[in-house]
Amino acid sequence: MESIQSAHGKSGGEEPPDPVESSKPQSATSPAASICPWKSKSRWKDVPDHEWNDFKWQMRNSIKTVDQLKLHIPLTPTEEQRLKNVTDVYHFMLSPYWMSLVNPDDPNDPIRLQSIPSGKELEVTSYGEADSLDEKEDSPVPGLTHRYPNRVLMYTTNVCSMYCRFCTRKREWIDGDFQMTRPQLDAMIDYIARTDAVRDVICSGGDPLMLSPVKLDYVLQRLKDIPHVQMVRLGTRVPTTLPQKITPELIDILERGKKVWVQTHFNHPREVTPTAAEACLKILRAGVPLNNHTVLMRGVNDDPFVMLELMHKLTASKIRPYYIFHCDQIKGAEYFRTSIAKGLEIMEYLRGHTSGLAVPTYVVDAPGGGGKIPVMPNYIVSVSEERWVLRNYEGMMVAVEEPPKPLRRLRRRRDRRPVEGVARLLSGDQPSLIPEHLLRYTRRAQHADAAQPTLVPHA
Ligand code: SF4
Hints:
Layout: E1 2-3, H1 19-22, H2 31-35, H3 49-52, H4 55-60, H5 66-69, H6 77-89, H7 96-99, H8 110-115, E2 144-148, E3 151-155, E4 178-179, H9 182-193, E5 200-204, H10 213-224, E6 231-235, H11 238-241, H12 248-256, E7 260-265, H13 274-285, E8 290-296, H14 304-316, E9 320-326, H15 340-350, E10 361-366, E11 371-374, E12 380-383, E13 387-391, E14 397-401, H16 406-415, H17 421-427, E15 432-433, H18 439-450
Parallel strand pairs: 3-5, 5-6, 6-7, 7-8, 8-9, 9-10
Antiparallel strand pairs: 1-4, 2-3, 10-11, 12-13, 13-14, 14-15
Iron/sulfur cluster binds near residues 205, 207 and 237.
């Protein structure tokens, strides 16, 4: 694997240049100031838009050390030492853009929790594992996981535009930055080419959009030329954390890849800024569909209202909410995990309270390589040979008939005795059970009243 330590080091590094020295004044109404709520309080407040919107400037000015970080958020000496202990093990990197979304005065800010190291990363639990999904066990070629019958995961680099503290592949950070060499990529692609069953290739990371443009183009072109590969999915946080990197050159590469889909990764509604949404729109305009992954995290988005707002902001930006992942049992990220019950509570709140397109599938990625298991609230109340009793999000229960079986129905009718409740729905004597005081019925009554014709008295 090629070392690309220059992208970011594990420790040390330069102080960010003082932007005030080198930049032109920026108007108070500058687009960047309105999009990044904390920029005006930051050391970057006077950086002109043309620099702010340049991903190379963003990368040059990224925060990679605790000494740089404490220029932006208050840290006590104890916190500073704890963070230095953490970053000796797990590095970090924050673009100025991302940092400008963080409220520096709130230690529990959801943007901060995902990205700024925490002393909790070194707390050991009984269940945290380096590779809880056993990805290496299902790897026929280094860097490639073949678990499901017709899809594979290609690991192309461990470089990201930000190092998410909850990352499932945190284990990979310890080796320093690398991207797969051309021969390593060839070995993976050759395996895909000789395995006819593979129709879907997921390029993940690290972040494949952090590959050099030449290498990304090479991978996409080779995969495009394999007839049985029907789709290539790129899992990325670049549109979220470094949207300036969605350049015309990158868009061109994605478009020429032909089979490309992009899987974005937004976790909180505040991440869906106008800049991020615009980056996503550029990808969509290239004919590349966008689906989103969200990781359910304690203190970040473990709230039905936050999740609903996130899903609405995504769909308003034409990004389809695809999965909510239950947080994996990853060593160093255990403190983000919620109960599965919390995930179910959120799904109960989403379903029916918004359009189906805004409701992702909640999945638990099974430890030990069992794959993604969808989990949802139970909508099946009961079942007999003739009927299913289902409930909707309002708690209304309805009997749904199976295709008729005449003889059995006649026999049942002779034997029928009075029953109540759900059993009555199963008996076929009642079609539904409706809770009192449903908003939907109140609305209906109001509509009915409003629709009454006005009576004009005869003269
Ligand atoms: S961008 Fe993805 S791979 Fe990279 S650190 Fe975040 S979650 Fe992990």
